[in-house]
Amino acid sequence: MSRASTFGHSVFLGEGAAAPGGAPRRAPGALAVLLWLATGLSVGYWVLQAMGRSPLTPVAAPAVAAPAPDTASVARVLGAVQAVAVDTPASAPAPLSSRFQLLGVINAGGAGGGRGRGRRGPAPPPRQR
């Protein structure tokens, strides 16, 4: 079969459209050499970097302490108001029931107190199982 392939490819290495004239392809070999060269140079660089460093020495702590913040200024910046001293006799605290106020559906008072959401009128009777 001395006739050239009409499709531009061949099963033999070094033949086909990529290598006219039957010359072997050198690009993959050259690329492999360049990649190994770059890898070797990179490894050599990092080995030299690691060998050239001295062991770490701890740094001494600073002898000067940080100044204490002025708590009154900080409180004023954060919105605190100065408390006014009022001379009142010490009395017993108010009972708990006077300090709270119930709001919402629970305070609906009496028979209709925990109805379902959005319903009007009396609550439906409970289901029998």
How would you characterize the overall build of this protein?
This protein has 129 residues and is mainly alpha-helical. Helices cover 29% and strands 0% of the residues.
How does the SSE layout of this entry go?
Layout: H1 27-52, H2 71-77, H3 96-99
Brief digest:
With 129 residues, the chain is an all-alpha fold.
Strand residue percentage: under 5%
SSE run: HHH
Number of helices: 3
* Helical content band: 25-40%
Question: Any idea what the radius of gyration is?
Answer: 45 Å
Main beta-sheet strand count, sense and barrel state: none
Terminal CA distance reads 93 Å
Low-confidence stretches: none
Average pLDDT, to the nearest integer? 74
Structural class: mainly alpha
Number of strands: 0
Shape: flat
Keywords:
3 helices; mainly alpha; 129 residues; 0% strand
